[in-house]
Amino acid sequence: MSERIDAHCHFWQLSRGDYHWLQDNDDPALAPIRRDFGPADLRPHSAAAGIGQVVLVQAAESDAETDFMLALARQNADIAGVVGWVDLASAGAADRIAALAAEPALKSLRPMLQDIADPDWLLTAPTPAALAALDRSGLRFDALVLPVHLSRLASFCAAHPDLPVIIDHAAKPALGAPADDPSHALWAEGMARLASETACACKLSGLLTEMRPDQRDTSAAALAVLQPVFEQLLGWFGPERLVWGSDWPVLTLAASHARWVEITDALLAPLSASERAAILGGNARRFYGLAEANNGLGSAKLTGT
């Protein structure tokens, strides 16, 4: 199989103080990841899984976060692409997008829609100038959404048919909720519509952290929960629009990197070798427009983080 690509990971430096979801609360569940994480921390896990390149995704709503990630990409050859952040509602958004589009490593932009109180924000807040700049930038759009946002995302995609969009973490289905929770139908209806009416891609990532602890006690238990979800996603998006990611280090709140690799390998086992290769790397390369790795992880320049 060709070398894998991790299409969704995070590095952060808490001294900047802008990771509000992580720093501005005292939730003890987040304590294990309330520290700095950098390329050198992830690299051994990636190497063990045969992952040669990663896509680094923003975790703070600030220009400083995007600049931080771009600096890391310049210093680490295994960071093949960056998903940055721009305040799409700001007066200077169009100029900022134009400047970032000239950065070779910058591949996509992502507002943190799941953390915005107004579910209609994507349709009402971004300025026309920002959206026009995004449409002509050549960048992609990462949609960090919940089931409640899916109908809004469909409208956004209809208004921007030439903007490549990828749904992060499969829109976070409520895997730990009771069977009669209305969010299940909202998720299924919304994802099916997006798959059939748009060209959206979908990330196979971030799912273990949506489960209750008892659902992920063992790999077998997690597989029992994920199998029907994966079969739905595969039926809707096909193997050509599913993209694997680790969501490390957030992943570690639920399981190890190696365990997520094991679980997803089991989910993908019935597929053909070419379909597995597409989901585990080829689709990410095509969607984000990633260059081929020169010498895999061995070519990466190590940094101090």
Description:
By secondary structure, the chain is an alpha/beta fold. The protein has helices spanning 20-23, 39-49, 63-75, 93-101, 121-124, 128-137, 150-159, 183-197, 219-237, 257-268, 273-288, and strands spanning 4-9, 51-57, 79-84, 106-109, 140-143, 165-167, 201-204, 242-244. The longest helix is centred in the C-terminal third of the chain and has 19 residues, at 219-237.
Layout: helices, strands, pairs:
Layout: E1 4-9, H1 20-23, H2 39-49, E2 51-57, H3 63-75, E3 79-84, H4 93-101, E4 106-109, H5 121-124, H6 128-137, E5 140-143, H7 150-159, E6 165-167, H8 183-197, E7 201-204, H9 219-237, E8 242-244, H10 257-268, H11 273-288
Parallel strand pairs: 1-2, 2-3, 3-4, 4-5, 5-6, 6-7, 7-8
Helix pairs in contact: 4-6, 7-8, 8-9, 9-10
- The gross shape turns out to be globular
The first-to-last residue Cα distance is: 30 Å
Number of strands: 8
The biggest sheet amounts to: 8 strands, parallel
What oligomerization state is this entry in?
single chain
Low-confidence stretches: 295-305
Percentage of residues in helical conformation:
40-55%
On the 0 to 100 scale, the average pLDDT is 95
Strand content: 5-15%
In angstroms, what is the radius of gyration? 18 Å
Helix count, DSSP H or I runs of 4 or more residues: 11
